Amino acid sequence: MPASNILANIRIVLIQTSHPGNIGSAARAMKTMGLSELYLVNPKSFPDEQAVTMSSNATDILDNATVVDTLQDALKDCHLVVGTSARHERSLAWDILEPRGCSEALVKQAQKGKVAVIFGRENSGLSNDELALCQHLVHIPTNTEYSSLNLASAVQIISYECRIASQLDVKVVEGEVEEVATADAMESYFKHLETAMVESAFLDPENPKHLMTRLRRLYGRAKVTPSELNILRGMLVAFQKKK
Predict the structure, then answer these.
(1) CA-CA distance, 184 to 171, in Å (whole number)?
(2) Residue 102 vs residues 96, 98, 115, 117, 201: alpha-carbon distances, Å
């Protein structure tokens, strides 16, 4: 697949961006690296003249940006979701990638369909509920004495790595990259799974601990295909009927 087609399948998602100038700067960062699909989840101000100014003529990215109410809406058709965040629950292990490994995973899956990289709020990053929607986290190594990284700079780094990965002369054998179930399909399954576990008393809704989070990560590592997901859903239905 041509590099341009691969990059077209990589979606940048910004959550509740406070400063419209950061949206414009992120659009500029994307365009310089050939990315074009921008989703905005509840931005504080958009459209905004400051975003246009800071985009430095990347206005086509802004004009075609999709504004949605929830993160789930931004991820519905995505087969791989990566969150950019240094903030996570330390009591649980995360599959954390560096930008190069992250971009290779994104580019590989983007040959089959849409993938997304989520960037959190400028001041607080991603919430735990938002992190739960990710299969991986990506960590950008920074100076430990000054680790503050501007939102647009983070977008620039990830976009650059994706561009480099898309241009690698790697021939993917037909069938090597399997289609993975979309985020929307997986969310529907997780709701069904949680209901079944509560009904069977396996999950105590008053004391859930980290059970659903752990299961989300397990399934994220498994890269469940649509046909496998149908089997899992069928099993839940059978178990519920038996009960």
Answers:
(1) 29
(2) 9, 6, 11, 10, 38
Q: Kindly list the strands in the beta sheet with 96-97, ordered across the sheet, starting from the edge strand earlier in the chain.
A: 66-68, 37-41, 10-15, 115-119, 80-84, 136-138, 96-97
Helix, strand, coil % over all residues of the chain, rounded to 5: 45, 15, 40
Judge whether 36 lies within some domain.
yes
Q: Which domain holds residue 228?
A: 183-242
The tokens describing 172, both together, are 């993917």
pTM, rounded to two decimals: 0.84
List, for residues 1-41, the tens digit of each pLDDT value: 788 899 999 999 999 999 999 999 999 999 999 999 999 99
Regarding whether 90 and 24 lie in a shared domain, the answer is: yes
Residues 169-189 have pLDDT tens digits of: 544 545 555 688 998 999 999
> Which stretches within the chain are classed as H helix?
3-8, 20-32, 49-55, 59-63, 71-75, 99-110, 128-131, 151-166, 183-199, 211-222, 226-242
Supply the CATH number for residue 41's domain: 3.40.1280.10
The domain that holds 196 is classified in CATH as: 1.10.8.590
State yes or no: pLDDT of 166 exceeds 50.
yes
183: its two tokens: 């985020």
Apex 147 CA angle, 146 and 149, nearest 5:
120
Place of tokens 């809406």: 73
Last residue of a domain, one of 166, 192, 219: 166
Sequence-distant (≥ 6) Cβ neighbours of residue 205 within 8 angstroms: 198
| Distance (Å, whole) CA 159 – CA 58 | 15
